[in-house]
Amino acid sequence: MPFTPPDASAMRRCMGRFTTGVAVVTALDAAGEPQGMTINSLTSVSVDPCVLLVSLTVGTRTADAVDASGAFAISILGVRQEATARRFATRGGARFEGVEAEVTDSGIPIVGGALVHADCRVHTTTDVGDHRVYFGEVGSLRDRAGTGLTFHSGRFGEFHDLGHAEMPWLF
Ligand SMILES: Cc1cc2nc3c(=O)[nH]c(=O)nc-3n(C[C@H](O)[C@H](O)[C@H](O)COP(=O)(O)O)c2cc1C
């Protein structure tokens, strides 16, 4: 198959084949109101110090809230939280209404029942095209066992263990 120059649709299609987990990033805006959106751009960057990154579309309410507060929280969703992923990715509507919300020690709302919660302070930002990449220094985090929600080519799914030997992955 020939290589072709990238455009938005080829980039979305190709990168959509990269199966990811699904998370909700949340932050308090300048008025102290909770904002949040579904993301799959979450990546671990460093363990000394503990830094992760999220890439948010410039101009979204959540990006504005992170800019205003200098802090954000991450909720990594479990397989039973597809409805939450859809709600936090749909424009309009009160995203936190009816969601079992909790707060981090620093007061940022998080999605109840998620597999992992992390409380982050903005370490650095870098603007790349239509997105702003936020590097967040993790102040505290917690997790529970469970199966994560995944995303592939526009559809939600779940991880299946192939049953092979565990791969050493701590690098
Ligand atoms: C699975 C999934 C992953 C997403 N990942 C991102 C992401 O990493 N960054 C981003 O800016 N938008 C991402 N989006 C889109 C936002 O969730 C969506 O545009 C949201 O409505 C933006 O918030 P707003 O309505 O406050 O502008 C993703 C959507 C889905 C369904």
Offer a few descriptive terms.
mainly beta, binds flavin mononucleotide, 43% strand, 171 residues, globular, three-stranded antiparallel beta sheet, Pnp Oxidase, Chain A, 3 helices
Major sheet description: 7 strands, antiparallel
Overall geometry: globular
Oligomeric state of shown chains: single chain
Global mean pLDDT: 95
Query: How is the largest sheet built, in terms of strand order?
Result: 3-2-6-9-10-5-4
Quick one: CATH class?
Answer: Mainly Beta
Task: Give the number of domains.
Answer: 1
Q: In the CATH hierarchy, what is the superfamily?
A: Electron Transport, Fmn-binding Protein, Chain A
Structural class estimated from helices and strands? mainly beta
Separation, N- and C-terminal Cα atoms: 35 Å
Radius of gyration: 16 Å
Order of helices and strands: HEEEEEHEHEEEEEE
The CATH topology is given as Pnp Oxidase, Chain A
Q: Strand portion, in percent?
A: 35-45%
Question: How many beta-strand segments?
Answer: 12
Instruction: Report the CATH architecture.
Output: Roll
The low-pLDDT segments are none
